[in-house]
Amino acid sequence: MPGAPAGSGAPGGPAGPGGPGDPGADGTRAFPPATTRPAGEQAPAPASGALSVVVAGGGSAGHIEPALAVADAIRRLVPGARVTALGTEKGLDTQLIPARGYPLELIPPVPLPRKPTADLLKLPGNVRGAVRRVREVLESVEADVVVGFGGFVSLPAYLGARNRVPIVVHEANARAGLANKVGARFAAAVATAVPGTGLAHEEVVGMPLRRAITTLDRAALRPEARTYFNLPPHGPVLLVFGGSQGARTLNEAVAEALPAFTDRGIAVLHAHGRTGTPAEPRPGYFPVPYIDRMDLAYAASDVVLGRSGMTTVAELTAVGLPAVYVPLPHGNGEQALNARPVVQAGGGKLVADEDMNGERAVDELIPMLTDPDLALAMGRRAKAAGHGEADEKLARIVMEVAGR
Length: 404
What we know:
Layout: E1 36-37, E2 52-56, H1 61-77, E3 82-87, H2 93-99, E4 104-106, H3 119-140, E5 145-148, H4 154-161, E6 167-171, H5 178-184, E7 189-192, E8 202-204, H6 211-214, H7 218-228, E9 237-241, H8 248-262, E10 267-271, E11 285-288, H9 294-300, E12 303-306, H10 310-319, E13 323-325, H11 334-344, E14 348-350, H12 358-370, H13 372-385, H14 390-401
Parallel strand pairs: 1-4, 2-3, 2-5, 3-4, 5-6, 6-7, 7-8, 9-10, 9-12, 10-11, 12-13, 13-14
């Protein structure tokens, strides 16, 4: 099943009705290809009086996808609005953004060194060049507002817009990154996915997601979803995924726990990653390297075992799926914080990476998978803890800041 990495939310994954960038079930799109404009070429100005929004969320899918979800919402709420994306030639910008029908204006990359290195000496010059390019774009598209989503594209966007164009910041993680810490100091509005980011004057709106996820009717789609993955039409299904490369801890836990699951009639849909190793074949076990239709995977499943990146948590709460979250043990502990609200609400459980193994997987998951009432109750709590309208909430904040 070719497509996007499991859980990435990248194009080629969830398909269905939504904003102008959502592909239909057959993968076709309702707009012509967008442009990618290198530095030095001037972007056309929007139609006279039309709202002009610049979004900065390039680099990774985690920054790009919420930016595009908000762009879709702005187009729905303000027909005729022009949304321009800032990005670089690095990362996924040139793949994901034009494919969703939005013009991409390239700026010089400004990598932010995490440790003192020789690259740190290049930072001031790199920033100045990127800021100049940002200002050229803002002037050429007659920007009314800049919306940043963190990452190395956002920092020059914030600095270029400062004192020129109002700024809206969206922070997806429980701990704000450097770019958003800088941008929040002079932003007109600061929106966050979860509370407690440390950014002043934060307004919690949730994580913007594409409509194909937030409008998903799991029950209606279940028969099609079960058929798509060759799953049995009845009985509980456990979905396991850990990103495009899988997750070694999850893969090993599944391999150890698999007999206990399948002996109880639990089917396991396991996205083990392109470089990951599946468990030994047995009836009831359905391994795939990655999943290209996360909407169908969610519809087919009853419970999830996965990491707790913010997009994963937001999608699972949006569709009302209970989960056992195993945070990635790296970084600043943000994945554990991402899952905290839904776990506290009773919509999921949290297990540290070092504590997850086959025995723990059985103990945590089998009660949820063999008690439909428990799974349904946890799913309702998960959905109540989510923010399915985050895209439109943030879009309305953007419109207000732009004076529309």
